[in-house]
Amino acid sequence: MDASEVLEESLQNMSIQDAETQVMNEQEINDLMNSVIDWGDSEGVSNEEIEADDSEDEDYVPRICIRLGGALQAPPCIDNLPVIDASETVHDIPDVEPPSVTLPTLQQPGFPDTLEVMTEDDLIGKRASITYEDCLRQLATLLVLPVQKCPYTCDVSKMECQCRPPFEVSITRRGTASIMEWTCLVGHTVWRWSSQPTLRYGMLAGDFMLASNILLSGSNYAKVSLLFQFMNMGMVDRSSFFTIQDTYGVDTVKEFWEERRAEAINRLKDRDVVIVADGIMDSPGHCAQYCTYTAMENESREIISVITVDKRETGRNSVIMEREAFVRTVDTLLNEVKLVEVCTDAHVQISALMNKGKYKDLGLQHSLDMWHGAKNLAKRIHAASQVKGQSSLSSWLKDIVNHFWWCCKTADSYQEFLLTRHMLYTRKTSKTYGYIPELQAMILQKRLAGKGMPRRRTLRPDDPRRYGPLPPVPAPTIEELLHTQVRRGLVSTFQTKDL
């Protein structure tokens, strides 16, 4: 067979194959009925992967694949399939014209912002409650957060966290508040919720109000802290309490008191004023450090003077503190109102001032409180009845005191005493404390208008600590302390010459 015959035969075979392949279509090739399982070829596989395959390994899995069109009699040929260029690849998707009206974008609901106190009305008068952590945890388990996944995004890689609910809930204590925090499985914070609003610079409103109200109610930080400890509740820190008290509380209370006192003095300027005054020590006996002397106007029952005397102002002599406070009170009121009568207890030093001392020529009438007189008389009669042979006085004690009481009411100076007589029969009314919200608002307003709490506390001009140390003797030196050993209540002094 010459070359021309061989060429003609090959062309005929190609025409027959083309005729057979032209009959095939895309559906026949993609039909799973015409597919077979075949060994994968090594085309596109690197030599390292081929060498790594070990057919003798127990876990060896040969490369197999599904070959479409493998069950057909004639091998599939895709050369005759229509060619699709890049410009025709998306022609099967219908064109969508942009809408003429802009549709609103759907925003994913977010978390509410932390409540902040901007004005005093945001906090004063708001109700508060004691909440247990178990109840908060029960509420948190039923709460569905308005997010589908963790909102954390890495600042470096800009990758988003893919953790989805449920998130872990933890409750921590910060001061008097409870902080609930939701975290994903990776540890990212999804949301943090506080049981209290915050003031400027991050201070919790509950801590600030608790510290302020301890001062306004006349309570003691140590006792309130112990109460909170017994109830297993969070408490404002001790240093924070005293910083709030010194920075915002004390000066505000003084300003409020001076303003109210000035209003009361203005109402009493054109009247004859009778005051009822008495002092109280911070502790009984001769170890008292402070004496507060209070004067009340008899008719209106308004407090018009409050004087506090420190022991260091009287030469560390607590016996004369009440006398010193009385002198300051009377001297101040004599310059402000028309004082005509002073009613006190039977204090020897005060009686000496009124009868023989500083105020004897001023025309002030000094009256003694009937209650203190009756009480002292009862004490003296009871002490006398304890003497041998005087026990019969105890049966007369009540009658004698009542007779003294009746004599005071029916004395010749009854008209002058009439101003104070009603106090013995007036029923005690409960206090309303209507001024407390105003004081709270003033303290909070000063905190909101300030620049935060100072890092260091400074002594006020009238701070008692400026008077010097309380003990009259100087503090021992370090050398003296080193030579004195106190152990189990016994003091033993070491002699240096014996060492």
TrEMBL record:
Region Disordered: start-end pairs: 450-471
Entry-linked PANTHER family: SI:CH211-108C17.2-RELATED-RELATED (PTHR31751), THAP-TYPE DOMAIN-CONTAINING PROTEIN (PTHR31751:SF7)
Species assigned in the record: Carassius auratus (Goldfish)
Protein name in the entry: Uncharacterized protein LOC113042334 isoform X1
